[in-house]
Amino acid sequence: MTQDVWISSVGSNHQLFDKPGIREKYFGQDWAHPTFIFGATTDEQMQYFYRYRRADKLKREELLEAAYVFDEKRWSKVKDLFALEGFYAVKGKLAEILKQFDLGGTDLVEFPIYQADKTTQLPGPYYFLNLGSRKDSFLIEKTNGARLLGRHAQTGEEVWGGPMVPKDGDVAVSSAALEGADLWVEPKYTGKIFISGPLHDAIEAARLKIDFRFTKARIVEE
After folding, report:
1. Could you report the per-residue pLDDT of 25-67, keeping only the tens digit for each?
2. Helix H or strand E segment including 53
3. Residue 120 burial (CB < 10 Å; 0-12/13-18/19+)?
4. Given 3-state DSSP classes, what are the helix, strand and coil percentages for the chain, each rounded to the nearest 5?
């Protein structure tokens, strides 16, 4: 067990999420067409996505209802972490690992995936990672290459980015990051998932063949 904090930039690993061979259905709407070309997203759906990235936990009906496989060859290559409309989803060993840790306000929300007939359900289980745990430990002034990206439209809160290609120790956090949940989001540092040392070690030990793009944070005592 380690008292470290790790940052995953997995959201920028486009190869991991590229063309998984499945499409989705929102509650109260028709199934998306079986194509890799995505249609326009409504303003309401975009708001769901923005809230999700900030770990403003969504209601079940605000997440996708279900998905179906339209390209079995591509789906067969999907790892234990994948994405639908920007929402992270997990299965297999990764899901079992996450269940063993304190996720705070984050939930694993089970959802169905069907065969191409949209009726025959795959065995699964599959879960959305419904982000809902936040900490305020990101230290802007002590982070190498920190840059202001803008302000949140609703709250006015600053949104920052780090170095373009982060290295271990570039991003600074306070010791408060060691308390509470093993997986969380820092609202001021966009697009990253923070995890505890023990959860990082468990993921690495499982050899999931997923490039989480981990870098170690620098913990600053204040």
Report:
1. 999 999 999 998 877 778 888 889 888 988 999 999 999 999 9
2. helix 43-53
3. exposed
4. 20, 30, 50
Q: Do the bridges between strand 126-130 and strand 22-26 make them parallel or antiparallel, or are there none, so unpaired?
A: unpaired
Any residues with CB less than 8 A from the CB of 55 and at least 6 apart, and which?
Answer: 105, 106, 131, 132, 133, 134, 184, 185, 187
User: Cα separation of 184 and 29, whole Å?
Assistant: 31
The residues spanned by each domain of the chain are 5-10+134-220, 13-130
Tell me the C-alpha distance between 151 and 158, whole Å.
4
Q: Are 81 and 94 in contact (CB under 8 A)?
A: yes
Tell whether the model's pLDDT for residue 2 goes beyond 70: no
Span 164-187, pLDDT tens digits: 778 999 999 999 999 999 999 998
Token pair recorded at residue 78:
């999907």
SS3 48: helix
Measured between alpha carbons, how far apart are the two ends of the chain, in Å? 23
Does the pTM surpass 0.90? The reply is: yes
From CA 219, how far away is CA 11, in angstroms rounded?
23
Dihedral (C-alpha) 173, 203, 2, 193: value to the nearest 10 degrees?
10
Residues 6+ apart with CB under 8 A from 89: 81, 82, 83, 111, 126, 127, 128, 129
Residue 215: helix, strand or coil by DSSP?
A: strand
Cβ burial 126-141 (10 Å sphere, 16+ → b, else e): bbbbbbbbbbebbbee
